[in-house]
């Protein structure tokens, strides 16, 4: 399909630079079936679900993966996006033309790395020097890797270290937050449990590739970046049991959805999974595991807008986004949310 079919105009004032406070006070656009749209709040979510439904969260934790350094006199920026070894990370570099294989980059606070070969995704492998765990080095020298559409408008600050982390974050490894889950609070989770809605966590380490634009003119020519995910046997059993009992599996975020669909067979059964996935979901895709999705509002011509268009239909999603823009919904990572249910 042509990528420009997934374009839309978004006024800059609709882009959120800070999250709602409290988190569950964010707005929620609920879209069910072929035409219904309701303007609600995230804290209304329990009343929009059924007892026996299961919300599926991503428990990845964002690491401070944005680094600023120097190679000689050249200023170099690095965004880590995938771990490849104990001390090795693939990274996208800013001013990459000034870095050659074997160069040492100094990131400050005593943190240095040696540049390796360029990889197939267009990045460079960095090998961090020293004996301290890389996680400690990143805590010392790194900052939270806010999306470019936020970072270009204001500097990252200490508040982002908590704002850009979900309440479910446990497994270190993401360089972007599973932002749909940023809206959840302990109070909302209590209300969800009281409504008889089930919950399950999975792990998909979100990579920086989620921020990259689709440069191809046709979706067939776009190549997704690999991300590593895991669903253990106990989680797979719970997910399958909930669906077998008549509950709907509702992914909280496109990362949870992509992992569920990667782990599901043609029969719709979710199997244990521990591997990389490059799944690219566009209109025409037949969903195997997921019955609905809670997600924030995505960029024009992005793979994530293509994904929601596959779930709800492209024209339907264009109408939903037109409504959201007209009603002043806040877009992107720190913005408002939507609940997308293809069938009532």
Q: Main traits of this protein?
A:
344 residues; alpha/beta; QueA-like; Thrombin, subunit H; 9-stranded mixed sheet; 6-stranded antiparallel sheet; 17 strands; 27% strand; transferase; QueA_dom1; queuosine biosynthesis; glycosyltransferase
Secondary structure topology:
Elements lengths: L26 E6 L3 E6 L3 H4 L5 E5 L1 E3 L3 E6 L2 E10 L4 E7 L9 E3 L5 E7 L5 E5 L5 H8 L6 H4 L8 H4 L7 E4 L11 H9 L3 E7 L22 E5 L1 H12 L4 E4 L1 H10 L9 E5 L14 E5 L6 H10 L1 H13 L10 E5 L3
Parallel strand pairs: 1-17, 3-12, 3-14, 4-11, 14-16
Antiparallel strand pairs: 1-2, 5-6, 6-7, 7-10, 8-9, 9-10, 12-13, 13-15, 16-17
Helix pairs in contact: 8-9
Protein model, in words:
The protein has 344 residues and is an alpha/beta fold. It has nine helices and 17 strands. It folds into two domains: 3-62 and 163-341, QueA-like, CATH 3.40.1780.10; 66-142, Thrombin, subunit H, CATH 2.40.10. The strands form three sheets. It has a nine-stranded mixed sheet with strand order 2-1-17-16-14-3-12-13-15. Strands 5-6-7-10-9-8 form a six-stranded antiparallel sheet, covered by helices on one side. It starts with 26 loop residues before the first strand and ends with a strand. It catalyses: 7-aminomethyl-7-carbaguanosine(34) in tRNA + S-adenosyl-L-methionine = epoxyqueuosine(34) in tRNA + adenine + L-methionine + 2 H(+).
């Amino acid at each position: 399909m042509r990528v420009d079919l997934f374009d839309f105009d978004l006024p800059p004032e609709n882009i959120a630079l800070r999250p709602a406070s409290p988190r569950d006070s964010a707005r929620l656009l609920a879209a069910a079936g072929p035409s219904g749209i309701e303007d609600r709040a995230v804290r209304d979510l329990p009343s929009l679900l059924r007892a026996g439904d299961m919300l599926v969260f991503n428990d990845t934790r964002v690491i401070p993966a944005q680094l600023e350094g120097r190679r000689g006199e050249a200023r170099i920026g690095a965004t880590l996006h995938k771990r490849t070894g104990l001390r090795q990370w693939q990274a996208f570099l800013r001013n990459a033309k000034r870095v050659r294989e074997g160069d040492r980059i100094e990131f400050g606070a005593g943190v240095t790395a040696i540049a390796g070969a360029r990889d197939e995704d267009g990045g460079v492998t960095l090998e961090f020097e020293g004996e301290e765990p890389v996680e400690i080095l990143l805590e010392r020298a790194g900052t939270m890797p806010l999306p470019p559409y936020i970072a270009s408008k204001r500097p990252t600050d200490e508040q982002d270290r908590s704002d850009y982390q979900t309440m479910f974050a446990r497994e270190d490894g993401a360089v972007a937050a599973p932002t749909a889950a940023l809206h959840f609070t302990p109070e909302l989770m209590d209300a969800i449990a009281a409504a008889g809605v089930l919950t399950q966590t999975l792990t998909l380490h979100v990579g920086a590739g989620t921020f990259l634009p689709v440069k191809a003119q046709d979706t067939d020519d776009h190549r997704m970046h690999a991300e590593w995910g895991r669903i253990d046997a106990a989680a797979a059993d719970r997910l399958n049991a909930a669906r077998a009992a008549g509950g709907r599996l509702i992914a909280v975020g496109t990362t949870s959805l992509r992992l569920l669909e990667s782990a599901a067979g043609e029969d719709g059964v979710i199997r244990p999974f521990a591997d990389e996935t490059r799944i690219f979901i566009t209109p025409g895709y037949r969903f195997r595991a997921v019955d609905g999705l809670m997600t924030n509002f995505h960029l024009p011509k992005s793979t994530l807008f293509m994904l929601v268009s596959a779930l709800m239909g492209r024209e339907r999603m264009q109408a939903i986004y037109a409504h959201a823009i007209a009603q002043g919904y806040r877009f992107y990572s720190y913005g408002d949310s939507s609940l997308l249910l293809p069938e009532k």
